[in-house]
Amino acid sequence: MAPPHRCPLCRQTFFCGRGHVYSRKHQRQLKGALERFLPQVEAARKAVRAVQVERYVPDHERCCWCLCCGSEVRKHLSHGNLTVLHGALLEHLASPEHKKATNKFWWENKAEVQMKEMFLISPQDYARFKKSMVKSLDSYEEKEDEVIKEMAAHIREVEQSRQEVVRSVLEDLPGVGNIHSGAIPPWMIQDEEHSSGNQQIGPSYEEFLKEMEKQKLKKLPPDRVGANFDHTSSTTAGWLPSFGRVWNNGRRWQSRHQFKTEVATRTKQQSHKEKS
């Protein structure tokens, strides 16, 4: 019996030996995998003729899956704040390791021989790419320097125009000096209304204590004993307050019954006044 064979493209194990690679299913899976990998290789081939240099962004750290090597490789080549698009993938496709893995992949999967060269980069093409890359990096840095110089010149012009406008406005103020003439800046001059230092801002401490006492009294029940007592009225030494009829004669339940009767009568009278 033939030893089991694991096919990574079909993701199945077969016991018919190497004969599986000639099946229609395997060839269909192989063709689909190569078609998915081919656009990335073609984009890298275009970079050989026209090198693209961009400012580095985190998105340039993306990787792609090399079908022949069975591993992830970086797509772009970054150094510092610059990135050469498809530089890392071209370097991988031109490496001897990739060429060896591609030959093995084509032999094991019985792919079309004519397509193998499409997934390889010759050393001559990669050398031409490196020369173009150096020139593109130099020209990009020159353009960046020119842009920086132009921005610096523009900023200087804007700052000079702003200073001229401020100087002209300050000079037009009647009877008031400016910092260019040696006078005290306006923001350092104290206003007359705040120069005395004796003006009190906000309520006094006594008023604050009175307001706090009012707020405490508002939280107490309105029908409490002594709530309506007039503290400003004059009383004699023999005056005694009436705390819940404790000074009345008789039993406690009698005074309690009398108190409830008076409260009910007072409530009826108040409701009658409201209706009228």
UniProtKB/TrEMBL annotation:
<feature type="region of interest" description="Disordered">
    <location>
        <begin position="257"/>
        <end position="276"/>
    </location>
</feature>
<dbReference type="InterPro" id="IPR028015">
    <property type="entry name" value="CCDC84-like"/>
</dbReference>
<dbReference type="Pfam" id="PF14968">
    <property type="entry name" value="CCDC84"/>
</dbReference>
<feature type="compositionally biased region" description="Basic and acidic residues">
    <location>
        <begin position="259"/>
        <end position="276"/>
    </location>
</feature>
<protein>
    <submittedName>
        <fullName>Coiled-coil domain-containing protein 84</fullName>
    </submittedName>
</protein>
